[in-house]
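ok, trying the design again with the full structure, not the truncated one.
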């Protein structure tokens, strides 16, 4: 018996992501949850610019491309026009936390009833490995060859912490995908976020800590070690806001 079957939301083709990239795992988790909720024909995937756009190659359900950073604005329009659809954005850190910072914060503050899947690998992956808003202090990139310096470029932005202080969001959580437990916790979090949306509870935000073997200049296994010793201590996984717990 097969232990695992390809979700209907994914095409029968190899992933377009680099070998060892956790974007592929994040995409599969989302597809798994959509299948378990029976939402394959109801889900709308709003994809912005960056490595996240490679989802267009593998996603078999309804999807729409948004301009760089504007996925929350597009998702807002779709959800308001079709409130019964399961609408979610899939965005990277450069797209969401830099170019689209105004869009994500405004949508969260309004409590728009859609879900954001935020893949944070601390780099502009598609455009050449430049420093992103989430690049760690001391982390090297093509625009910070000696490591990020807080005095000149500020500190890494912690999006879950920022969004969770707003009144409107219903569920805000962060998970790391470098361990089996982290993967299983992330799947549960994604499912809760989607369920909250389907129940009309409001804006839900899931941050997934991922890697970038290509631009980090490491093997996939080394990136997992880097995440454990550097990424996770700064971007601490956990649930930052849950409207049901608050109630």
């Amino acid at each position: 018996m097969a232990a695992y079957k390809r979700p209907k939301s994914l095409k029968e083709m190899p992933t377009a992501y680099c070998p060892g990239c956790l974007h592929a795992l994040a995409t599969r988790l989302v597809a798994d949850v959509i299948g378990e909720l029976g939402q394959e024909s109801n889900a709308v995937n709003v994809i912005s610019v960056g490595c996240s756009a490679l989802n267009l190659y593998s996603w078999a359900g309804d999807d729409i491309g948004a301009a760089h950073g504007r996925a929350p604005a597009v998702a807002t329009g779709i959800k308001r026009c079709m409130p019964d659809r399961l609408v979610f954005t899939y965005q990277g850190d450069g797209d969401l936390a830099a170019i689209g910072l105004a869009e994500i914060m405004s949508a969260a503050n309004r409590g728009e009833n859609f879900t954001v899947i935020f893949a944070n690998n601390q780099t502009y992956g598609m455009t050449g490995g430049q420093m992103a808003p989430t690049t760690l202090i001391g982390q090297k990139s093509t625009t910070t060859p000696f490591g990020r310096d807080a005095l000149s470029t500020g500190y890494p932005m912690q999006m879950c912490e920022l969004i969770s202080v707003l009144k409107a969001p219903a569920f805000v959580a962060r998970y790391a995908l470098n361990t089996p437990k982290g993967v299983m916790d992330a799947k549960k979090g994604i499912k809760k976020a989607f369920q909250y949306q389907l129940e009309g509870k409001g804006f839900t935000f899931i941050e997934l800590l991922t890697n970038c073997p290509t631009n980090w200049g490491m093997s996939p296994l080394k990136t997992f070690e880097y995440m454990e010793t550097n990424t996770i201590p700064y971007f601490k996984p956990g649930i930052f806001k849950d409207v049901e717990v608050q109630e």
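Keeping the full-length input from now on. Strands lie at 43-47, 62-65, 86-92, 115-120, 171-176, 204-209, 238-242.
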